[in-house]
Specification:
binds adenosine-5'-diphosphate, 18 strands, alpha+beta, five-stranded antiparallel β-sheet, OB fold (Dihydrolipoamide Acetyltransferase, E2P), Rossmann fold
């Protein structure tokens, strides 16, 4: 449904608000036709990056290229991008179909043509039956689909989504994220989705771009970023990892990659400080040299074959290949 799939590229993009540097010379190629999540804690510069790509915020320095063309100074509607907002920003007095057709009306497209186009989009998001309703007659999930259809009607190369699931309850959030993923795959265009939730990013993204303090800390396939964090920040933010300082350096190791053995028989010794049953796993907290706390997630069968208690001295063991060196 799009004209072409174009590559989005950021070249040394900077955003300053007065003295605050919100985005600091960020460069990145986004793979065409992929689902990318921009992930990081509040205030790290995700939304500013997205808003600059959308054209809702000016670029202080650097360029934004789409399909090789510099779009940094173009108005939002001329860029080949479309934005879906967190609060959906639907017009309360317009019916579903007129909300979806709105941008075509602005372009002067006649009623019959724009309604035909909007009907196509509503079919795509499975809302044909609700075309004549007003936004406040819809559930949160339905409103979100209207907002999606409204963004997609411009046939963008890149759909920008700013925390699109945060207004939904947890049950709906999981359902809608599956729908977003399916829609992206059906359309084959790039989705760039801002989130502060690592679960959401892992569930959705082909590529995760982790931001921290106005810069990209690490970018790569979701599994790579989770499994092999390059910095202590990424390891801690993605979760499921221990960050350890060992005689040979700083490392991240996944909690589920650590096993228990007899004292002296592992890679390091520790004393158990807490044991927590979690159903499929038992979470063991142990103190190792340097007063460091390490979490080991032991499958329940393995744990109950050799149960341990707080106070016990044990060896902690892991495969060397699961130890990921950290650069900072
Ligand atoms: P995130 O989306 O990761 O939460 P933002 O891009 O919203 O981060 O914000 C990055 C930084 O820029 C923060 O320090 C924030 O306070 C600041 N900031 C964002 N928008 C504005 C603005 N309109 N005026 C001044 N400072 C802003």
């Amino acid at each position: 449904m799009t004209e072409t799939i174009k590559e989005l590229e950021l070249v040394q993009v900077t955003k300053r608000y007065g003295g605050t540097v919100a985005v600091d010379a960020v460069s990145h190629h986004f793979k065409p036709g992929s689902y990318t999540c921009l992930l990081g804690p509040s205030g790290c510069g995700k939304s500013s990056t997205l808003r600059m790509i959308a054209g809702h915020e000016s670029v202080s320095d650097g360029s934004i290229l789409l399909g090789g063309r510099d779009i940094s100074d173009l108005p939002p509607a001329k860029r080949g991008t479309a934005m879906m907002f967190q609060n959906y920003a639907l017009f309360p007095h317009l019916s579903v179909i007129d909300n979806v057709a709105f941008s075509l009306k602005m372009k002067g497209v006649d009623t019959a043509t724009r309604h035909a186009s909007a009907a196509q989009m509503l079919e795509l998001v499975d809302l044909t039956a609700l075309s004549d309703r007003l936004p406040d007659q819809l559930s949160g999930g339905q409103q979100q689909r209207v907002a999606l259809a409204r963004a997609l009607i411009t046939r963008p190369s890149v759909l920008l989504l700013d925390e699109p699931l945060s207004a939904l309850d947890p049950f709906l959030r999981i359902r809608m994220r599956a729908e977003l993923r399916k829609l992206q795959q059906e359309l084959g265009i790039s989705f760039l989705h801002v989130t502060h939730g690592q679960d959401e990013a892992l569930a959705l993204a082909d590529e995760i771009v982790v931001m921290n303090n106005a810069v990209i800390e690490q970018a790569g396939p979701a599994r790579e970023v989770f499994n092999a964090p390059k910095t202590a920040f990424v390891a801690q933010f993605m979760g499921g990892h221990n960050v350890m300082s060992l005689p040979e350096g700083h490392f991240a190791v996944r909690a589920d990659a650590i096993g228990l053995t007899a004292k002296g028989a592992g890679m390091t010794d520790g004393q158990i400080t807490a044991v927590e049953y979690q159903g499929t796993h038992v979470s063991i907290l142990a103190r190792i040299a340097g007063d460091q706390e390490v979490t080991a997630l032991i499958p329940d069968a393995a744990f109950f074959a050799h149960p341990q208690n707080p106070g016990d001295h044990v060896g902690l063991t892991w495969d060397k290949q699961n130890l990921h060196p950290l650069t900072s």
